[in-house]
Design a protein that fits this description.
- With 139 residues, the protein is an alpha+beta fold.
- The protein has one domain (8-137).
- 58% of the residues lie in helices and 12% in strands.
- It has a 4-stranded mixed sheet with strand order 2-1-3-4, with helices on one face.
- The longest helix is centred in the C-terminal third of the chain and has 43 residues, at 95-137.
- The protein is globular, with a radius of gyration of 18 Å.
């Protein structure tokens, strides 16, 4: 799916359980198709705006002008495109608050591998739970 002129594009790690959950929520907020979500696991290298490893290392967004924006500034760009989150973008666009958000994002990035392992573990437990429940209820 090619972007419409003026559309914001979010590049995300489709193998990351945290990212998948976040994108699922954002898709529900994307009521007017203002944002195009591109799973890096499914994208061809020739369609990427930067090397895949670079895009996977941090959150990246391409604004309507096709400029690639990373980190907290990328989140603010995405929020600006979603009507429900525009007020948040207006506040977070302040350079002091944006610098603080970037620091928080860097802390999150250092914790991301641990959080991903926790989410994988929780997902595996959740996917096994129904099968175990069926075995217990079988005659």
């Amino acid at each position: 799916m090619d972007p419409r002129p003026g559309q914001t594009t979010v590049w995300y790690d489709g193998s990351c359980p945290l990212c998948r959950r976040e994108i699922a929520l954002l898709r529900r907020l994307n009521t007017e198709d203002e944002v195009r979500f591109c799973n890096l696991d499914e994208a061809l290298d020739s369609t990427l705006p930067a090397p895949r490893a670079h895009l996977l290392a941090r959150f990246h967004v391409q604004g309507p002008d096709a400029k690639l924006i990373a980190g907290a500034a990328g989140f603010v760009e995405m929020w600006r495109a979603l009507p429900l989150l525009r007020p948040l973008a207006a506040v977070a666009g302040n350079r002091f608050l944006l610098a603080l958000l970037e620091r928080f994002y860097l802390v999150f990035l250092s914790l991301r591998p641990l959080l991903q392992r926790l989410m994988f573990w929780l997902e595996s437990r959740h996917s096994k739970a129904p099968a175990a429940a069926r075995r217990q209820s079988a005659p």
